[in-house]
Amino acid sequence: MKERFKKFWAQRTPRERVVAVVAALFIGFTTLYPMLVEPVLTAFAEQSKQIESFKKTYDVTPDTLDRYSKLLARRKDIEAFYNQADLSADPLSYLEGLLKNTAQAAGSYNVTPREGIQLGGKYTTKFFAVNFQTGSYENLVSFLNAVTSGKQPMLISQINIDKRGAGETINVQLEVSGFEANTKQ
To answer: Around Cβ 12, how many Cβ atoms within 10 Å?
Structure first.
């Protein structure tokens, strides 16, 4: 076979040889490029993208882990705080008791319940608009402390305190939310 090729090649003119070599190179290139070169180039490009993505992830990972550990610690603190809370009682009754006993509300007070929100099936958040009058700042401070950190802690979302004139009466308006354990589960 080698001898036949040599004889065939020897019979060709230099121009035919150049055309044959160019045609063989073209066919070889068009055949080998899609099979060998293109997949390698594609693999290198994809690998470069992955390396860049991993580098970005590596750069933000310490901050993410630090934030996660802080949030986890905060979550544990909140859970420990609310594990001590007595959520079995109705927050409306608890709030009215604080108004009578701690704030020593002068005259009548008004507690208006609003629509609650279910929290994960275990708890319901109850919202209240509260209006009352008290005779001293000490009673008001004791009331606010008991509302936020008492046996059934509540969140104060808004508060307005008004003392007009020379009178000893302090008018208080606030919005609070408390938690109640769902009995239906």
So the answer is: 12
Task: Give dist(CA 175, CA 127) in Å, integer.
Answer: 7
Q: How far is CA 21 from the centre of its chain?
A: 66
Strand ordering across the sheet containing 123-134: 110-119, 123-134, 170-181, 155-162
Q: What pTM value is reported for the model?
A: 0.55
Q: Which residue has the tokens 């009578």?
A: 100
Residues in a beta bridge with 112: 129
Domain 91-181 matching CATH 3.30.470.20: the answer reads no
Per DSSP, the chain holds a count of helices (H) and strands (E) of 5, 4
Alpha-carbon distance of 90 to 53, in angstroms, equals: 52
**pLDDT at residue 183 is higher than 70:** no
pLDDT score, position 120: 66
Query: b/e string for 57-89 if b means 16 or more Cβ within 10 A?
Result: eeeeeeeeeeeeeeeeeeeeeeeeeeeebebee
As a whole number of angstroms, the distance between CA 103 and CA 122 comes to 31
